[in-house]
């Protein structure tokens, strides 16, 4: 009878351990289900921020190009001469 009690106690402990492990895994799965959409949203926001950071650089470059044209009015004449020279003396 004593052996039977020991076996039941061991099975009870094993059952409790398995139940606790099951509960822990369910909680982890639930947390993952909550975290994944948040991670995806954060990644999307990060990409958007990077794009917004590069846009000012692009627009400032666009503004600088006309300024360079104003500073160098001979630019077009030089470009035309270079094109003509390239046609005359192809490499």
Automatic annotation (TrEMBL):
UniProt biased composition (Basic and acidic residues): 45-69
Region (Disordered) residue spans: 38-69
Origin superkingdom: Eukaryota
Protein name: Uncharacterized protein
Organism: Zasmidium cellare (Wine cellar mold)
């Amino acid at each position: 009878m004593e052996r039977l009690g020991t076996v039941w106690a061991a099975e009870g402990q094993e059952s409790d351990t398995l139940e606790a492990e099951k509960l822990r895994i369910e909680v982890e799965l639930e947390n993952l289900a909550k975290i994944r959409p948040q991670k995806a949203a954060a990644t999307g926001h990060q990409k958007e921020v990077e794009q917004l950071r590069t846009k000012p650089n692009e627009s400032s470059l666009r503004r600088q190009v006309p300024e360079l044209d104003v500073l160098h009015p001979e630019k077009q004449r030089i470009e035309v001469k270079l094109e003509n020279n390239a046609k005359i003396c192809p490499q």
